[in-house]
Amino acid sequence: MRKLTKKNHAREKTSKVLTSAVSKGKAISKLTSDERSSVKFKIALTETLQNPYTFRKMKPADIKEFSSFLSKTVGRNLSISKVEQLYLRTDGPNGAKNKETIHDAERITMHFDNGSRDFRIHGYYDDFDYFCVCRIDPHHEYAF
Fold this sequence. Notes:
By secondary structure, this protein is an alpha+beta fold. The protein is 17% helix and 22% strand. It has a single domain, classed as YaeB-like fold. Strand 4 and strand 5 form a beta hairpin. The longest helix is centred in the middle third of the chain and has 13 residues, at 60-72.
């Protein structure tokens, strides 16, 4: 399995491969609210997860929480706006979004829960509207 990098990403965004919501030449990463409701929520692991928020540190119950999040979002083919409406955490000290430097790039990060008070998944949207996971925080230990 190859690592997904800028070099082996698709050169152009196509509706057949990536999403069915390409509209009138707009860049997908600049989604309007109408487009957010039609683009499906997708998750990607594009880089290694940040220590200590990795799979290696997770217990079986923690992995079940992550699986539950996948089932409730990607498994139900929910749109980005629906996932954000249901699971986006907005009560942190910085609100729903936070600027962070991740792998030498400044990103707007967000964090979701799965309906549980403890579980959190942190990441950012890439240029192809995948939610790129950078941390899995099963016990809400990371200070967002």
